[in-house]
Predict the 3D structure of the following.
Amino acid sequence: MAETTLETPVETHRPRRIKWGAIGDHTVLILGALLMMIPPLLALTTASHDAVTIHREGLQLTLGDNLGKNFHAAMFEKGGFTQTVDGTLMLMNSFILGIGFAMGKIIISMMAAYAIVYFRLRFATLAFWVIFTTLLLPLEVRILPSYEAIQKLGLTNTYTGLIVPLIASATGTFFFRQFFMSVPEELAEAARIDGAGPWKFFVDILVPLSRTMIAAIFIIMFVFGWNQYLWPTLITTDESFFTLVRGIKQIVLSYTDSQIPEHGQALALAIVAMIPPVAIVVFFQNWFVKGLTESDK
Amino acid sequence: MAQVSLEGIRKVYPNGFQAVQTTSFTIQDGEFVVLVGPSGCGKSTLLRMIAGLEEITEGELKIGDRVVNDVDPADRDIAMVFQNYALYPHMTVRKNIGYGLKNRGTPASEIAAKVEDAARMLNLTEYLDRKPAQLSGGQRQRVAMGRAVVRDPALFLFDEPLSNLDAKLRNQMRIEIKALQRRLGTTAVYVTHDQVEAMTMADRIIVLNAGRIEQIGTPSEIYHNPASTFVASFMGAPPMNLIRAEVDQKQVKINGYDALMVASEAFSGPITMGIRPEDVELDAQGQVKFHVDILEELGAHRLLHGRIDDQPFSVMIGKEDTAHTGETRIKLKPEALRLFDKDTGLRL
Amino acid sequence: MKRAGFDNIWLPVALLLPQLMIIAIFFYWPAGWALQSSFYLQDPFGFGSTFVGGENYTSLVGNDQYKRVAGFTIIYSVLVTFFSLAIALLLAVKADKVIRGAKTYRTLLMWVYAIAPPVAGFMGILFFDQSTGPLTKFFQMFGWDFKLGVDYNATATAMVIVAVWKQIPVNFIFFLSGLQSIPRSVREATMIDNRSATGRFWQVTFPLLAPTAFFLLIINITYALFDTFGIIDALMKGEPGNNPMTLVYKVYLDGFRGNDLGGSSAQSVILMVLVLLLTVFQFRLVERRIHYT
Ligand SMILES: Nc1ncnc2c1ncn2[C@@H]1O[C@H](COP(=O)(O)OP(=O)(O)OP(=O)(O)O)[C@@H](O)[C@H]1O
Ligand SMILES: [Mg+2]
């Protein structure tokens, strides 16, 4: 060992130093990954035990044999206060909220951004400011008056009341505006010379060109919609409109209520609430990351 | 096919900047006109007004017999090739070329046939089903050309279509575009800031400077009889030599001591004198002293850069001629001498 | 606007109309209404209201509970922002360095982004469970009788930990993409100029990341202020009692549980001003970023 070091000091020394650094890097990353992975994993393993075990011993490291039973109960047994809602219905409501919000947002904001960027409008600047002021105030800040507005319109416990007010912010419009501005000017000019009117240009050229952007925005908005909590909590009091995330509140309450400690079921429902947004983010992570990092530039 | 005429056309941008001063000229049917000038002189603005992409502030534009000031670009019967090609990135070459026809309601079978024809003409047949991203620069350029020719327009507009290509491809495409335009006989307006392109392609050149036309003429007129010092120094590489001189009793003198040939007009006083480097010869008996600083070897010929007194001056000599740095004497061809006003720069 | 915009009039109006209508009904109307009712005292039973001028605001300033909430919000925001940024930066720097498994690490470190804050809060309840929670036991090892929902400091600690955990992925994604957009040539130049890796990081990489970090700073403050509502609500298990809470939570609490419309509206308006300031700050930053790149 000493001999080789003497003969070729550079060759043996260098790789070893780099290797140590790399081991350090990997250690930090593995610790980080564990930090992020452990809580949901423990939730999953714990969800496979029966209620009594969980109540007495807390989080479980091993897989028990009640996984199927708990998930089945969570998804198909009616629960809540009025016994009207099961996990399947909440799952459906979550999809309605996530997809409805994402689609509504994309359609409405693309149209608005197109109007602002591609038309000679005298009031374009005004429209721009009217729309972009909404970036200033998240829904949480104006939650009470927004709720009152929905109530006056009789939209509580409706999907419209659930979805549309969430769309009332300019994040999507801002994003599409940025993207449209980066599309070369000459493309619209070439299209005009090719005889494409504003509508044709939008449908034939701009929308297909925005495909990846639309996908990215869809993912971000779907996750955002799916994970809404405060607004659904206020707007939906009828349990048949509950989303999974909204239902978490009920789960938490039931968890603290020692009368019916169905912890396994509660955890199962929480896991169901995580799976769709997590799956979409993981599977489409390249689009997602691109959309996230570019939308805010 | 059409004649294009501009009458008193002017452009003021919304921010108040006047990009094109009042301008009038007529482009004949089938003519290839090149707009040339330094960056920012208003070439694109002028072209875009003809295309209908930019509003005309003042004046009248006719394509054929029709006043088109208020006609939509799509209805002007024009086609345009952009510097960055502006191909639709998500469409195949076939769709790109056929898109304009499709928008005009041309039947699908006819579109297919026309696209095939255009592709054959431009050697694009094997690329028809590719997307623009899968093509080389030159091929993209051809697709842009294809998009223009397929519609068989009355007028081609080109905005620096070759400036994104490398030098060799540029030469080749230059010849192809010119040949294509000849064959089709379509009127064309071509914008460039490359004076070699202007010289080689144009039937007529329009030299623009700061939103104003400096000169309109055939390449030969522009080259040999520049209307101003601006044109003289902009067109031709190397540019025309411009030096201070004086006319005294019909004699042109450089710095007072070297009496030269007779000036044709009856004026006197300080002027700017111009002469192209190839119209100067080394001659031990020459009238003018020339100090050579650098000898530039160009293969077919050589350039000598130096000074007449303190004024920069260049001389072009054949590859057989001998030359060396240092003091020498030169002879100026009297008939090649051009005289300009020393203040306005206009031809005297 | 584009150079050669279309001249059509009705199409853009039609295109803008849906967005403008939604904004008018669900943004401007409520916001205006909040501003208005912040100057009124609402009868608790909903029978009319009286104009009280700035009284709702002045009574907030003198309110000890409000001051306490504001104080907690500040500390909470600072801690959440600092720790989530610091941990994410460390992980991003390492993830940018490793060659093997980079993609896997990225996935593992970012997927928590998709978990809803109240779900994260719910998992927090399990980890901080009074009798069985592993983190409760961990703190007990140091002699801290950790009682979630009972002990103010314990609940606050749990809130910060869960909020940090939930925010690491966003910061990680931005830092990583910021690092990856540093041109290769710049990195190579630093390799030649500076022998120490730590030196390289602080003298070159970090300054180049500064715009991203500034931007994330705003994002994180906004997150701590507003988006952690679900975490806070879950961790106090529906029992505000003596528990720590943020300003937004108090707006909700006073407005919906306390039926103090005027007070809640005044709090909303104060928050609006706060966000406004943050956004103005952010816009100036974004502008500068655009100029530089
Ligand atoms: N939309 C606009 N608003 C105001 N000024 C403009 C606008 N577009 C161009 N200009 C100005 O008008 C002048 C002419 O511009 P133009 O694009 O016609 O130049 P160009 O001759 O084509 O130059 P280049 O060779 O660089 O393409 C420039 O000084 C430019 O700054
Ligand atoms: Mg130009």
Observations:
- Chain A is about 75% helix and 0% strand.
- Chain A touches chain B at residues 184, 186-187, 189-197, 200, 204-205, 208-209, 211 (CB under 8 Å).
- The two ends of chain A are 54 Å apart (CA to CA).
- Residues B 13, 15, 17, 19, 37, 39-45, 193; C 3 surround adenosine-5'-triphosphate (ligand 1) (CB under 6 Å).
